[in-house]
Amino acid sequence: MRLQTITIKCPLCHNQFDELEPISCYTAGQRLDLRLIGAVSSPWPVPLCPTCGLVIYKAEKPFTPREARIVAEVMATQTYKAIPQCEQAYHRMALIFEALKKPADVVAYTWLQASWEVEDKVRVNRQFLGKSLQWYERFLAKQPRSPKASSERSKNRLMTAQLLKGELLRRLKKFQAARDHFEPLLNIVEFKTHAFFGSIINQELKLIEMKNALPQEIQQAA
Ligand SMILES: [Zn+2]
């Protein structure tokens, strides 16, 4: 992974600081939870302001007054303050996105990325996987089960959320619920005929059968 130094201005406290940013990487594969494998930082590194502790989820545009107020409120909570210094950027981002009422699948994916940052801490990792699942369930509760009538973009969002919900159920050892979620998807034409979603579901069902709750690399269909 090649790095370059960039200067960032914190949109909250306006402090300037230098940060190493990746400019190239090499990806060798991807796991069923979409984490990338290879000479790549996954999740993608996001800077933390060394002065106020804000996770810089956007640096290009200034905060609106509403956004600045909500972000400051989140950062004043015990939960945010208890996060180990200079760590868990995506955990911080997930808390902020919840408060900003970002779309449920965006919050869900941010919690999933937060779980990748703490894979050496079993309890916290499980907690974040559970958060991600809750938000995907919230997202899917408001969507049609079949992706048919929707635009290409919302179809992709919906199908990705369906896959990740099942993956999270498996990772949380809810094997029966995971099977009950995946099996009906195979009857939906968009999944059945998709270039790789169908084979991913079959891979998931095999892992569920073996009661395997570990992260797994996506197997390329032969
Ligand atoms: Zn700051």
Characterization of the model:
This protein has 222 residues and is mainly alpha-helical. Helix content is 48%, strand content 12%. It has 9 helices and 4 strands. It has helices at 65-75, 78-81, 89-99, 104-116, 122-141, 152-171, 175-185, 189-192, 197-209, and strands spanning 2-9, 16-24, 26-30, 36-39. A two-stranded antiparallel ribbon has the order 1-2. A two-stranded antiparallel sheet has the order 3-4. The chain binds zinc ion.
- Which stretches are low in confidence, meaning pLDDT under 50 for 5 or more residues running? none
User: What compounds are bound to the protein?
Assistant: zinc ion
In terms of DSSP E residues, the strand content is 5-15%
Helical fraction: 40-55%
Largest sheet: 2 strands, antiparallel
Shape: globular
Look at the structure and give the mean pLDDT.
92
How many helical stretches?
Answer: 9
The arrangement of helices and strands along the chain is EEEEHHHHHHHHH
**Assembly classification:** single chain
Radius of gyration of CA atoms, rounded to a whole number = 19 Å
